[in-house]
Amino acid sequence: MFPQKLTDPRAFDIAAALLEGFNRHYRLFRQASVEAKSRFEAADWHGQQRAQRERIEFYDKRVDEAVERLQHQFRAHELPMDVWHQVKLHYIGLLTNHLQPELAETFFNSVTTKILHRSYFHNDFIFVRPAISTEYLENDEPGSQPTYRAYYPTRETLRETLLRVVNNFQLALEFEDLGRDVEYVLRAMREEFGEVRLRTNFQLQVLSSLFFRNKGAYIVGKIINGFREIPFALPLLHTSRRQLYIDAALFGEDELQMLFSFARAYFLVDMEIPAAYVQFLRSLMPRKPRSEIYNALGLHKQGKNLFYRDFLYHLKHSSDHFRIAPGIKGMVMLVFDLPSYPYVFKVIKDFYPPQKDTSRELIQRKYLLVKTHDRVGRMADTLEYSNVAFPRSRFEDELVEELKHFCPSLIEEDGDDLVIKHLYIERRMIPLNIYLQEASTEQMTHAVIEYGNAIKDLVAANIFPGDMLWKNFGVTRHGKVVFYDYDEIEYLTDCNFRKVPEPRTEEEEMSGEVWYSVGPKDVFPETFGPFLLGNASVREVFMRHHADLLDPAYWQAHKERILAGHVHDVFPYDVDKRFSRLRHVHNPDQPQAAGSPALSS
After folding, report:
1. What is the share, in percent, of the chain residues with pLDDT greater than 90?
2. How confident is the model over 249-279, as pLDDT tens digits?
3. Binding site annotation covers 331?
4. Which sign does the torsion angle of CA 590, 562, 432, 303 carry?
5. Which positions in this protein are listed as binding ATP (predicted)?
6. If residue 235 lies in a helix (H) or strand (E), which one and from where to where?
7. Which of 237, 352, 419, 507 has its CA 20 to 30 A from that of 78?
8. DSSP code for 469
9. What is the rounded CA–CA span in Å between residue 343 and residue 482?
10. What does the DSSP 8-state code read for residue 547?
11. Residue 327 marked in a binding site
12. How far is residue 53's CA from residue 260's CA, in Å, rounded to a whole number?
């Protein structure tokens, strides 16, 4: 019975302690985002990547601190049911005028689910559904920064307005030639839209904070003209002389989707009201789930929470069954899916074949590495969950038998539920090996070129994929090739790239066995060919575009540059979008057109 009166004084104190824990978390989270601006101005690229990585760990630390406080101060695990009912009601009251209520609700869930038994995981005790609306949230305090700024140019003042848009961010560095760059933006707008008539409501709406990631800062907004709304983003980069320039103008939902891709590192953005940022970004990318937008903004726990709510909603409105995922079965992961749902579920097996020298702990560390690393648009983000209860009736019997055989330590049957104690969820893609079997000549050519580009982007990010077989890469709906099998990845700088030694005798040359010594981190790129290039058509395309991947010197050269402190540029847009084609000026700090054609700072 839900309480009709708030009678226990401990309940309010617990709710207040939980909110204090969340407020501390978000204060530190925002500070990391505020400092991104000074790191960008100082060209502190290693510091920027370190901040992106360390910020991911903030949340779990604050949750653990809150759990420890509640256990120590209130003996929280011994409290009766009616007290926890009252805690939630008090907490809702405390969030009435809060500016991040949806995040605070998720923090409440994260703390209480570490204390309460799983039988409490319903809406009476935790926020299975949100209780506080985030619509129309805005800070009304004098001097507070709005979520976005609106500009109302005429055709004659559009250039002046774009200058003001950029200057309003008050970056400490000078631009190399901002007037020139604005002319390039205007030219790109004309190429994109032609000479359109400006309607009465013509305006630019621009989010008030820059979006920082790696070596770039992005201005994000939309153009409104009549009934049309056109998303845009302007990437800002450094010249070799510590000046700034606008590198490109990106327009339309598809290009914004690439910028905010699930396969890229999270942005650092200073947001007082994250729900308002998500609402604005959703107007630019209506097909992108809110969960992925929260993830892209670095609020991955909120993204997980929303994803799970969406998943439960989908389960209620579907009737198909979970099954073993199509494709070649993995040796380390058991993968299953729900045909009507665009994600796959991955569970670490309890045992592996002899050739896989690994462990559950090591595999989890690899997945955490990917979570905290720059994914450069080539590694799918993963959502990690514990103790997920699925309806047993929705599982095919063959899948249940596989789970019980390969993952018995992670499976528990509880009444009508099948509980999986640990799993990862990833966006579903077409496995590249299957895609190549069904592809036209044109599609095959594009996919093989993309495969090589994906590997080169990973190399630029200091990642060696380990297992480079086609089956470990997937093709997205945009035709991008993305890596998704992480159990053998290594830092490039930890690998030793060697040339296969010449055989010393005829016996060694004819031997089917390896006649030379191989260390645990030794890699022989020449040996990739026989595993990858059995198809003559695939081989021809690969050798024409990516033969350097079979050369140890290619890998070693990149390793040495990274060890020397170089941070590579990888762009989240096509090279043809860059204004460098207009400047006709070679900047030695920028990547050459050869190599990856599409691609993310």
Report:
1. 76
2. 999 999 999 999 988 989 999 999 999 999 9
3. yes
4. negative
5. 325-331, 346
6. strand 228-238
7. 419
8. -
9. 14
10. G
11. yes
12. 17
Backbone angles phi, psi at 440, to 5 degrees: -70, 170
Rounded to the nearest 5 percent, the helix, strand and coil shares of the chain are 45, 15, 35
Q: Distance between alpha carbon 490 and the CA centroid of its chain, in Å?
A: 19
Q: What pLDDT is recorded for position 595? A: 32
Average pLDDT, the chain: 91
- 512 confidence band (pLDDT: 50, 70, 90): low
Distance CA 62, CA 52 (A): 17
Q: How many Å apart are CA 403 and CA 325, to the nearest integer?
A: 13
How much is the pLDDT for 116? 86
CB neighbour burial string for 347-375, b if at least 16 within 10 angstroms, e if fewer: bbbeebeeeeeeeeeebeebbebbbbbbb
Is 452 annotated among the ligand-binding residues? no
- What is the CA angle 292-216-168, rounded to 5? 95
Determine the distance from the C-alpha atom of residue 204 to the mean position of all C-alpha atoms in its chain, rounded to a whole number: 28
| Residue 598 pLDDT grade (very low, low, confident, very high; cuts 50, 70, 90) | very low
Which has the minimum average pLDDT: 143-157, 486-500, 576-590?
576-590
Residue 482 CB coordination number (10 Å): 23
Q: CA-to-CA distance for 355 and 117, rounded, in angstroms?
A: 40
What pLDDT, in 10s, does the model give residues 418-476? 999 999 999 999 999 999 999 999 999 999 999 999 999 999 999 999 989 999 999 99
DSSP 324: E
| Type of residue found at 192 | E
Residue 525, marked binder: no
Tokens for 521? 């981190």
Report the relative pairing of strands 216-225 and 228-238 from DSSP bridges.
antiparallel
Q: Note the pTM of the prediction, 2 decimals.
A: 0.90
Alpha carbon separation from 113 to 67, 116, 119, 563 (Å, rounded):
10, 5, 10, 43
Is 288 marked within a binding site? Answer: no
Look-up of token digits 């055709």: 155
Instruction: Summarize pLDDT for 313-337 with one digit per residue, the tens.
Output: 999 999 999 999 998 898 999 999 9
Closest CA to 601 of 569, 567, 561: 569
Answer whether residue 599 shows pLDDT above 70.
Answer: no
Which tokens in the block code for residue 416? 């009508």
Residue 429 assigned to a binding site? no
Per-residue pLDDT tens digits for 365-382: 999 999 988 888 999 999
Which residues are tagged catalytic? 381
- Pick the closest to residue 163 from 86, 79, 219 (CA basis): 219
Q: Is 326 annotated as a binding residue?
A: yes
CA distance 508 to 21: 65
Residue ranges in 42-155 assigned as alpha helix (H)? 45-74, 81-94, 101-115
Alpha helices in 317-475 (DSSP H): 360-372, 397-406, 432-438, 441-460
User: Does the structural domain 432-550 have CATH classification 1.20.120?
Assistant: no
**H/E element, 474:** strand 473-475
